[in-house]
Every structure is written in structure tokens, then in C-alpha cells.
């Protein structure tokens, strides 16, 4: 559906902003080329996404330039035009709408909180939304997954919008880069390469990645993983990478021996008369790294294993609280529920252990 808007109409920028966020149809902005195109571009930048598709049209609707994006449009290098056609394909209308909403939030007339954000200030939200998305996926709730993916997508759009404002890159650049990367790394799908099996597929993938960064050594990659990934994930990735370089125990007994060695060194540091927290932390890290390697040997993910243990422990403890509450139901008065564990307080270790064993039966 094509909509029209006359740029000589009072308040037309407000109507344009409304079009950008409604997500319906394409728009013909009439007679907008009769003024200063640089000023027109500034108005568009306050309400439209930087990747908005533009086509410059003459009076008779012949194409003068385009289609091009708002980000790439240089008013000084295009010829005289009368109208502007803003296209929104049906398949991308809601992405365009989201990008336009974020652009308006960041505009001078937008939201003070959004205006104040920087790439650095938004990084905690990226992590938070990523973890909440993973939690929704693990819970298997499609509605929650869609909602959390939307929150995560917002962080991508916000980062892209800020970078577009700084003349660095925009959302289209981000999408184009990952699209190109996927095609480049899948020559067996988008090219003529033949892949015999999964091991060959993995080798091909790594070879292609190496050609993308030919000067990066394995050590530099390991340092990147250590600096950028969550600790247990980084440990697993590092241990897998060095195995590919031949840095591996001949059998699993070597890993068990390493675990015993690291356990003894940790105990020694913890029992020193004059404790050194830095050395204690280092030895604890060494032991954890050895355990991650043991999991890798048996194709177990330590991060996933610890997540499941945390959930199992929390569920059992919640069950303990419920069991203790049920035991206290027949008492004369209930302790106040102030967010603590009133029904567990004052119990002996033996009583708590009995509740724990009952909880384990219900949550094995």
C-alpha cells in the first residue's frame, strides 16, 4: 500500500515520523526536493532508520537516483529531484519500524535516557538480555523466547543506531556483514565445494576463518577467548583449541593426575600460616581448568553442568523451605515471611539434613 505526504503541508515531519513507526506500506514524500536537500536529510535522520531505502524522483516520477539508503545519501552528489520515495518491503517492515523507533528515541526530541546511552553503558544490558533469552529457551516457553529475543534485538539496533550517528556503521552494515560471512563460510551450500563428513566440515570452517585473519596466531586467539568469554566457556574453548595443536594428554589418566596435583597445591595454599589470596585464587583457577579439561575429554560442558547443578540446588532448597513450612503449619503462629527462611532457622544440622534428603527425593 502506497501512502502520500505533501512536504508543503504544515507539520509534515510529525506525519513522517508517524509513518516510520506504524510499519504500514511505502511512502511518496511529495515536493520535498524544492527546498534544501541537506535540511531534508537532517529531518529524515531524526525520524527514519539509517538504513531506510530512498529513491529520488523527478516531477514526472522518473528516477533521478536510487534506490539508496538514508545513511549513504549525499545530497551534494545527487541531481535535482522533486519527490522522494521511501520504500518498505512487507518482509522488512517491522525491522524498519523498530529501527525508526530507535532513531526517534535517540533524536533531540526523543527520550533523555536513550539519548544519554553509549556503546559502553549498554553492554550490561546486552549480557542481561542474552542470559534471559537463554533462560527462556531452556524453559521451553515460545512466547517468552520471542519476547526475550526482541529485547536482545533491541540492543543490536541501539548499538547500530549510535554507531550510525557517529558515522561508523549502521544496521544494514551489520546485517550485510553477517550475511556475507555466512555465505563465505558455507561454500558447500552457496558454492561448488563438496564436504564428505562433519570432521571435514569443521576443518573447512576453521581454514576459512584462518584466511579471514591470516596473521592471528593461536596464542592471540586464546587470549581473545580469555578476555571476551565467560570463564568456564573460555576454558572449554581454549582447551579444545590447544588439543588441535597437539597439546593433549595421551590418556584420561593424565587429566586425573593433574586434578589431584592441582587439588594438593590448592590445599597447600589454603593451609599456609600466612595466606596469600592471589596464590589461593590462582590455584583454585588451575583446579577448575583441570576439571573443565576432564569434562571436555568426556564431551561434557562444564558451564552447562554447573548451570544444571545451580538449578537443582535452588529447587531442592526451595523444596526444603516448603517442607519446613508444612511441618510448621500446625504450630500456633507462623513466623513472618520477610524474604528469609524463617521455617529453617533454629533447626539442627541433623534436621536440615533430613529435609535435604527429602528434597533430593523429590528433585533427584
UniProtKB/TrEMBL annotation:
It is an enzyme of class 3 (hydrolase). GO terms for molecular function: nucleoside triphosphate diphosphatase activity. The keyword Transmembrane does not apply. It comes from Thermostichus vulcanus str. 'Rupite'. Residues 117-190 form the NTP pyrophosphohydrolase MazG-like domain. Its EC number is 3.6.1.9. Residues 326-364 are annotated as: Disordered. Pfam families: MazG. Transmembrane segments: none annotated. This is Nucleoside triphosphate pyrophosphohydrolase. The keyword Hydrolase applies. PANTHER family: NUCLEOSIDE TRIPHOSPHATE PYROPHOSPHOHYDROLASE.
